[in-house]
Amino acid sequence: MTRRATIWGLVAAACLAGPAGAAERVVIGSKGFTEGIILGEILAATVRHAGGEPVHRKALGGTQIVFQALERGEIDCYVEYTGTLAAEILRDDAAAAPEQLGAALAARGIAAGAELGFDNTYGLAMKRALAERLGIRTIGDLVARADEPAIAALEFAFSDEFVRRADGWPAVRAAYGLRQTPRVVDHALAYKGIDAGSIQVTDLYATDPEPRLHDLVLLEDDRRAFREYRALILTRADLHERAPAVAAALAELAGTIDGPTMAGMNAAVRVDKQGEAEVATAFLRERVGWDVAPVAADGFRRLVHDILRATGQHLLLVLVSLAAAVVVGVPAGILAERHPAAGRWILGAAGIIQTIPSMAVLVFMVPLLGLGWRPAALALFLYSLLPIVRGTATGLASIPGHLREAALALGLTPWERLRLVELPMASRSILAGIKTAAVINVGTATIGGLIGAGGYGEAILSGIRLADAARLMEGAIPAALLAIGLERGFDRLERWLVPAGLRTAGR
Amino acid sequence: MIVVSDVSKSFAGQRVLAPTNLEVPRGRTTVLIGPSGCGKSTLLRIIVGLITPDSGGVTIDGAPMTAATALELRRRIGYVIQDGGLFPHLSGRDNVTLLARRLGRDPDWIRRRVEELADLVRLPQAALDRPPAALSGGQRQRLGIMRALALDPPVVLLDEPLGALDPLVRYDLQEDLRRIFRELAKTVVLVTHDMGEAGFFGDEIVLLGGGTIVQRGTLDALIHSPADDSVRRFILAHRLPGMTAGDHR
Ligand SMILES: Nc1ncnc2c1ncn2[C@@H]1O[C@H](COP(=O)(O)OP(=O)(O)O)[C@@H](O)[C@H]1O
Ligand SMILES: [Mg+2]
């Protein structure tokens, strides 16, 4: 099982609360894939080695989210790739050169630190045996001997992302004048196809463990068509003042990880199912000579503790967002029912919000609200509005006309009519809307795992990432139980809140 | 005193009430009678201010019924809705006492009042604590009457209030209601389709037909000098004892 950020932080703090005095807290971020998390764990262990108190906010998401978190000072450092920085952040191809990069980042309050030593570029790969038989070593060989029937017959199959990205297939095709028409296949399937011999050339990241697994050989990029993706530690510019020892230790990582080493660590996690933290400490011990004690794990207690913590975080997300949605949604539903013209707008807007993918909401919200539970809760709040608004509006609209008349004729004020007659009569429908929102929220709250809000999403996402069913279940089972529990709870609440007369009449 | 002057109403271009005038003197009972769909309930709704008439207006004891005065006036009007109109989410008792509680009446007074009214309409105590869905149609009608009378309003409007009661209960309740209306000098408009009930309650009977008042007067006048053939047929249809078509030739 993988380690969790908070435990790391707590235990590290406990270990170090000795001679060093109050340890400097250093927040490390990581991108949401195996290599990113391993590198995050290496940074965290390095911080610990240097006497700091690391907090690893794991698998925060994509480049934009993690970089912005660094820019805003929510994290102190993470590992990024030069090519990605140039293409996605600075949007300037020339900026990948070290000098330009340093200046551009400094302008944003970020220091470009040590380069780790490997280049996780794209590559084209073939079965080793086939490449040797055909005598192909470089991508250039494919072009030079394109007329040979054995070469012309080679089938190319690439991932969708590789075919689309300007720095992927389009770049290599233009640079070499390749004329093959690639098929687009899922990455995992491409390896199956290559083993079966139905395709011969595919794309991969240079540090992927697959070449070793499938006995592939990476073709040399002799014309340098692919951009360089040199791994680089980014830190807040002020880190070396705040925590000089940490900054110095991070600098010592320069050049310590070469391509095969990184590929080996990726394989250790993805293939051999080792924990990222164990892999990281093993690397530091064997390659750098630092003995950073791995955190002792008591499997069962750790599991219980992790699940309880995730439950707390998950409930916080669900309940805070739900409460806010009730406070906003019920009045909006009342308004929608009172004024049909406004109602069309309100329900229309709530409906459109519903269709926005949660990732998109996060990309909008993280720059405004930072990382953590706030943007996740806001997204959940937005998703909760539609069922609650609709439940309220339809509940009110279904009150029979003669009962509205009765309330009017009695001489009740509009507010009294709403509170004493209409809302109680609509209570069933309103509660049903809230219940729907709550149950949907339990599922959607897994997005919390993407942006450091915790919850069951952390385990689910890392389970998916690592194809680790046990880890996935660690999040999925409690999430399902929580959804069922909430549903039960709402049934109770209904019995308690909805007046008896409505329950007998309603069935 | 209720004064309805030149009130007319159409729904979607369909005329339901032609300009109509009606006065109900203080302490008197007027009965509206007429075939189904002739606009009786519509007229009552206009009097309570639930429907705004296309023309004309209504005054209650001299005060005009307007949007601004409606709340105040309605609290002085007891209105028994055609099918009870009880709130399904409240027990019988809570339906009856809703407004009294809202207005901050003394709980002891409210409790005594409920007992009085339950006695009056002969509603068993147990029925008070059940939701309307668990009551018979007759019990619901009696609760509707209790709710209308709860605050002892000077004006009472009743829309076919006794239709669902069995004849013996209805007989007793008719007696009791008329006694209350007379002794407490209520100003009453009662809608019924039962000639016998109309004659029993009505100081004046107003026969509506085709959106206008066809004839008004006492039961005797309606029976013995019907204004036109439609009145004659309406009365004949009630098969009052000793009446045949020949009586009016
Ligand atoms: N809100 C309304 N909208 C449209 N038509 C209505 C409405 N209320 C009543 N009507 C019509 O007006 C006519 C008179 O209705 P009503 O006053 O309820 O008759 P009744 O004499 O049986 O009580 C009927 O034809 C009815 O369909
Ligand atoms: Mg009617």
Which structural class is indicated by helix and strand composition of chain B? alpha/beta
Q: Tell me the strand order in the biggest sheet of chain A.
A: 7-6-8-5-9
Q: Largest beta sheet of chain A, briefly?
A: 5 strands, mixed
Overall helicity of chain A? 55-70%
The beta-strand count of chain A equals 10
Radius of gyration of chain A, taken over Cα atoms and rounded to an integer in Å: 28 Å
Small molecules bound: adenosine-5'-diphosphate, magnesium ion
Predict the CATH topology of the largest domain in chain A: MetI-like fold
Main interface: chain pair and counts: A-B, 24 and 27 residues
Radius of gyration of chain B: 18 Å
CATH superfamily of the largest domain in chain A: MetI-like
CATH overall fold name of the largest domain in chain B: Rossmann fold
In words, what does this structure look like?
- The complex is a heterodimer of chains A (507) and B (249).
- With 507 residues, chain A is an alpha/beta fold.
- Chain A has three domains: 156 residues, D-Maltodextrin-Binding Protein, domain 2 (3-Layer(aba) Sandwich), CATH 3.40.190.10; 97 residues, Osmoprotection protein (prox), domain 2 (D-Maltodextrin-Binding Protein, domain 2, 3-Layer(aba) Sandwich), CATH 3.40.190.120; 207 residues, MetI-like (MetI-like fold).
- Chain A contains 25 helices and ten strands.
- Chain A has a five-stranded mixed beta sheet.
- The longest helix of chain A is centred in the middle third of the chain and has 40 residues.
- Chain B is of the alpha/beta class.
- Chain B has two domains: 169 residues, 3-Layer(aba) Sandwich (Rossmann fold), CATH 3.40.50; 64 residues.
- Helix content of chain B is 38%, strand content 24%.
- In chain B, the strands form two sheets. A six-stranded mixed beta sheet of chain B has the order 6-7-8-3-9-10, sandwiched between helices. Chain B has a four-stranded antiparallel beta sheet with strand order 2-1-4-5, with helices on one face.
- The longest helix of chain B has 17 residues.
- Chain B starts with a strand and ends in a 13-residue tail after the last helix.
- The model of chain B has no long low-confidence stretch (mean pLDDT 90).
- The chains are: A alpha/beta (507), B alpha/beta (249).
- Chains A and B meet through helix 21, helix 22 and helix 25 of A and helix 2 and helix 3 of B.
- The site of adenosine-5'-diphosphate (ADP) has 9 residues of chain B, from helix 1.
